[in-house]
Amino acid sequence: MNTRETRFVGMQCVFAAVFWILLVFSAGCLTQDERLLEPAAAVDLMSRNRNNPDFLILDVRTPGEFGQGFIEGAALLDYYASDFRERFAQLDRDATIFMYCRSGNRSSHVLRMADELGFRRVYDLRGGILAWKEAGLPLAEGGMKTPSAPDSPAS
């Protein structure tokens, strides 16, 4: 190879390296899931949907965890229940669903499940109820409600 060819090959390597660095960097930016909400953004979502009959706050913790305090208006659907997937799949796929668990682990699995099942507007509390409490936001106590499946069309 002569000097000119060597420079050309060297420049190709530099351009390829820059391309891959930009691709990796931009892919990292693009994969940030906007459905993972910080507590303040979750409060905003709930406020905007206060009068929306198609809005559901879903707590996917256990009944024992729920009994220690929950986000006002939340319905419980225990992630560890044997029929969790079936019960979750019965929810309205067009509803706006905001969910949370203790730390964000279980609800992140449910978010992937929601994608698989074709849900359109599902949001997850980043860091779970722990982040909610850390932000100084209030918890409710009292009775437990469970989510209902959408009404079936009359036969």
TrEMBL record:
GO terms for molecular function: thiosulfate-cyanide sulfurtransferase activity. Keywords: Transferase. Coiled coil: none annotated. Residues 51-141 form the Rhodanese domain. It comes from the Bacteria. The keyword Kinase does not apply. This is Rhodanese-related sulfurtransferase. It comes from Desulfomicrobium norvegicum (strain DSM 1741 / NCIMB 8310) (Desulfovibrio baculatus (strain Norway 4)). The lineage of its organism: Bacteria, Pseudomonadati, Thermodesulfobacteriota, Desulfovibrionia, Desulfovibrionales.
